[in-house]
């Protein structure tokens, strides 16, 4: 056989095409074979590591979900048990047997306040007396205690001073406070302005006049974290009273001071579900029945000019509509707090 390239012409003039012999297959060198094997092994190891990592992540995710479900179940059970405890405790406080309340036989009572015949409540704005102190006012009136209300401003920030004045009178009368026992201060230095700072001396002078004229046995106001008169003002009054009115010292010496405890946001909107915490942490408290709670809510609705949407939610969920916890203070307590701060 003649080996020729394509398109080669033989002597007879005919063109002959001859298929060339196939070239031999090149054999891989030892270095190339080892490189391919090493690359394949590395790829296999990467796949195994990726699968192992994916499996670990899936296991962690599954375990986390399992623990999360178990934790949520436990939290739900605890909340359910706590809610049942609150409802049962609330029912026990107001259960009546044979026409007589038997909660007095228990260590837990629905109210624990110092006995008094004349009490002075000091607030900053109209509607404070119901929004925060409604249970205390109702309990004092139930005990036939005469309640005086001193409101230090008429709430004229929105040009509604005259309206809020009448609302204050209506709300207090609905809670059993006489119209002649309400004092509304309209002083230049005590205006309802969020940017204005009330001077302690001005507040103390107003408070001293009331204490001297009313002969109150119990003074009730906000604590130092509240929105109204601070406890330091009351103690300043006591110092001045002892210094300048020694002949009438017995009037203030016999007057106890209670401040409303300011609670955190969570407790503030727990309503009756704050009951166990209040009984454990407070020394003086008032807990209203469901019917009395509605009386406080109706009194709050008489402040119609302030009935915006969040006030309506406040009436439904706030603990201050059904529970008041108060702290009895003295001069040494305040001095300690001032030094500590």
From TrEMBL:
Bilayer-crossing residues are: 74-93
Organism domain of life: Eukaryota
- What UniProt keywords are attached to this protein's entry? Membrane, Transmembrane, Transmembrane helix
- Which of the seven top EC classes does this enzyme belong to? hydrolase
Q: Name one GO biological process term.
A: GPI anchor biosynthetic process
Give one Pfam family, short name only.
PIG-L
State the Gene3D superfamilies in the record.
LmbE-like (3.40.50.10320)
EC numbers for this chain: 3.5.1.89
Task: Give any Gene Ontology cellular component.
Answer: endoplasmic reticulum
From the UniProt record, list the coiled-coil ranges: none
Region Disordered, as annotated, extends over 1-31
Q: Is Aminoacyl-tRNA synthetase there in the keyword field?
A: no
Q: Keyword rRNA-binding on this protein? A: no
One GO MF annotation is:
N-acetylglucosaminylphosphatidylinositol deacetylase activity
Family listed: Belongs to the PIGL family.
Protein name as catalogued: N-acetylglucosaminylphosphatidylinositol deacetylase
Organism of derivation: Anopheles maculatus
């Amino acid at each position: 056989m003649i080996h020729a390239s394509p398109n080669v012409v033989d002597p007879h003039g005919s063109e002959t095409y001859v298929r060339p012999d196939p070239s031999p297959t090149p054999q891989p060198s030892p270095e190339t074979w080892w490189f391919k094997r090493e690359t394949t092994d590395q790829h296999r190891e990467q796949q195994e590591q990726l699968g192992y990592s994916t499996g670990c992540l899936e296991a962690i995710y599954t375990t986390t979900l399992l623990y999360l479900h178990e934790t949520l179940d436990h939290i739900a059970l605890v909340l359910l048990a706590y809610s049942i405890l609150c409802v049962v405790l609330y029912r026990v406080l107001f259960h009546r047997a044979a026409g007589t309340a038997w909660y007095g036989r228990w260590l837990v009572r629905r109210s624990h306040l110092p006995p008094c015949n004349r009490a002075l409540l000091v607030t900053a704005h109209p509607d404070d007396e119901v929004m925060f102190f409604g249970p205390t006012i109702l309990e004092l009136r139930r005990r036939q205690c005469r309640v005086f209300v001193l409101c230090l401003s008429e709430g004229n920030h929105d040009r509604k001073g005259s309206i809020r004045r009448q609302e204050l009178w209506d709300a207090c009368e609905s809670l059993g406070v006489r119209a002649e026992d309400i004092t509304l201060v309209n002083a230049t230095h005590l205006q309802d302005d969020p940017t204005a700072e009330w001077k302690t001396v001005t507040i103390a002078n107003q408070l001293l006049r009331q204490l001297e004229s009313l002969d109150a046995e119990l003074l009730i106001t906000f604590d130092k974290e509240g929105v109204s008169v601070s406890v330091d003002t009351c103690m300043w009054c006591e110092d001045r009273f002892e210094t300048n009115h020694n002949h009438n010292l017995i009037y203030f010496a016999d007057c106890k001071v209670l401040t409303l405890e300011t609670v955190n946001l969570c407790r503030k909107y727990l309503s009756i579900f704050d009951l166990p915490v209040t009984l454990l942490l407070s020394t003086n408290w008032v807990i209203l029945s469901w019917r009395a709670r509605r009386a406080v809510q109706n009194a709050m609705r008489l402040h119609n000019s302030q009935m915006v949407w969040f006030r309506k939610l406040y009436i439904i969920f706030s603990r201050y509509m059904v529970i008041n916890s108060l702290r009895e203070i003295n001069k040494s307590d305040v001095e300690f707090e001032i030094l500590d701060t």
